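User: Could you write out the 3D structure of this protein bound to adenosine-5'-triphosphate? I've included everything you need below.
Assistant: Certainly. Input first, then the structure.
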Amino acid sequence: MPAVQETVDRVRRIDVDQYRYGFETLIESEKAPKGLSEDIVRFISEKKNEPAWMLEWRLEAYRRWLTMTEPTWARVNYPKIDYQDLYYYAAPKPKKTLSSIDEIDPEILKTYEKLGIPLREVAILEGVEPPPGGEPSEQRKIAVDAVFDSVSVATTFQKELKKAGVIFMPISEAIREHPELVRKYLGSVVPTSDNFFATLNSAVFSDGSFVYVPPGVRCPMELSTYFRINERNTGQFERTLIIADKGSYVSYLEGCTAPQRDENQLHAAVVELVALDDAEIKYSTVQNWYPGNSEGKGGIYNFVTKRGDCRGNHSKISWTQVETGSAITWKYPSCILRGDNSRGEFYSIAISNGYQQVDSGTKMLHLGKNTSSRIISKGIAAGKSQNTYRGLVTAHRKATGARNYTACDSLLIGDKCGAHTVPYVEAKNSSATFEHEATTSKISEDVLFYCTQRGLSQEEAVGLVVNGFVKDVLQQLPMEFAVEAQKLISISLEGSVG
Amino acid sequence: MALLEVKDLQVRVEDREILHGLSLTVNDGEVHAIMGPNGSGKSTLSHVIAGKPGYEVTGGQILFRGEDLLEMEPDERAAKGVFLAFQYPVEIPGVTTMNFLRTALNAQRKARGESELLVPDFLKKVRSVAAGLNIPQDMLKRGVNVGFSGGEKKRNEILQMALFEPSLCILDEMDSGLDIDALRIAADGVNALRSPERAMVVITHYQRLLNYIVPDYVHVMAKGRVVKSGGKELALQLEESGYAQFEDAA
Ligand SMILES: Nc1ncnc2c1ncn2[C@@H]1O[C@H](COP(=O)(O)OP(=O)(O)OP(=O)(O)O)[C@@H](O)[C@H]1O
Ligand SMILES: [Mg+2]
């Protein structure tokens, strides 16, 4: 497998610390003063030129948040977060109002190029500027929304998407341009009162992506958002809302990175998905926030609420995640299976190394008749990390014929790490069939020796075995992401043996 | 210079000495058979030659073309041409046999400073080797040894041996678990690989295998030592009289 070799080569080129996205971009930025208050909420809303209803919505969330306490049930430990010691808004200082991609600060463009996300090239592909002397490329297109600290800096392919009737834009723009859609759906899956972090996000979210796919439309390309935290001491609170109207289909990819810093940074996002009758949403994440250094210093605190609502009959929502980054991950992408015959899927690879702590899993709430769900979770723990799968599957009294299949496999590398599985199952009607399988294994000495006897280095052997272990899930990812994820997996496990 | 020279090798596992001063010399092109009762240390010897972790070498040395093998990592030994066909091949779920073979072959070639084999050339090679061993193509698409029968696992070992073209092949009980037909096919595969540039060490309990793979030398191991060496007739003699006489000698 050439990817393994390539991975090893890449790993070798990386110096002491393995995180290759750890650079910082020096640009001027505009920040709100530190701390959180009603004034800050008003400041953010004003910066975004929001209508009054939006400000009210935020303020209500803020007041609610003041009455809430941080949850402690997850298997993660971290020092108390001082919410008054954070910046809640930071934006790259624009030279003037942007009207085309050429006016984006070249430093930011360079950042995305370094990350392998060529906003400029993508803009050329859009057909606005055909490449000199060439036909527009037939290469597969991916529309990108790039979010830098608190604001969206560029969204590509807007024209082509518009032709198909697909709306893909920063949520801050959608609030102004499509208030009827936003008002109808925002908070309808994750209510403002949902949980401590989601409520905080509702009060202070600054940007994120908005997608609406009209009835019967199959979105003509993959949509993707790349999140980048750059500023120091800044929380990132993005908000994503995706609506697939009747009979439509969309595949959405999300990627994220952050500079390497000694202090921890907070990331508290909310993602809401709504699938109406016969619609399908496929949501894939490669989460690679800075995990902290080998002593456990620094890294992102990732407290994320992701939930999909299969609101229509025969609708389908599928979550696929590859979690390799963050010092702390607290994340449970879930599905509410409301429509009859709706289906939810959760495919997860969660890798922890060093001092990382992962508490992740899913909830499948069966409300409609003949609903089905499938959970495939692969947890890999190395170094001194802790990796927990936490899952909840419930069938409502009326959810006759509900079916769930859950398989949780954990792989331990070394003997200083831990893997834990915490499944909750609750069926309120007797016709539900829930199956659960769980395994925990260690990467065996015999397997490693077999591979090294055949010429693989210790590192290559681990990479190969782990890639085999997660194969079922990798296959769920769109091609481009699968290749990237495979490389990432081996890089994340660098130094985990020997 | 000898291909493999094991001199007065002493090996401990978890504070227990298993090999108590074992010596063995193998030259290019020779086929050596090692026989001996259960627990006499045959697999231990093959593991130590291949570099399996967990064994403590407390005395003696192993030279491979004059180089100190004990100083090398297992993958370096493999790239130099040491191949071990395992008594118990492991399963690697999710990694197709084809993918595994290609990754391993290219890793070895790279370590020797050779270029990677192009995909079409690789496929051609694997297909012809597999056909010669009666290995169906769809077996190569399955996970390494996953769900393989005992015989299929052993054949997969011979397949790798044929593909990697090592200069020293150690076959640890390749006949166990094989039916008569499979044994003949595997032995034919091994015989096809006999050449003046390649030596073999064949570990077995049964004279039967040596009817197919006729050795130049036979060694009897007992209690962690080679207690007797001779020609192929020694195997026949063992078949009749058993190991008791040698165990006493050890
Ligand atoms: N990891 C280990 N820990 C403890 N004892 C071990 C270990 N490995 C081998 N031994 C012991 O060393 C001795 C030799 O074992 P080995 O497997 O080399 O024998 P063998 O000659 O290959 O036997 P067989 O013919 O049954 O395959 C046995 O007594 C075995 O129990
Ligand atoms: Mg043995």
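Residues 276 and 301 of chain A are 33 Å apart (CA to CA).
User: Perfect, thank you.
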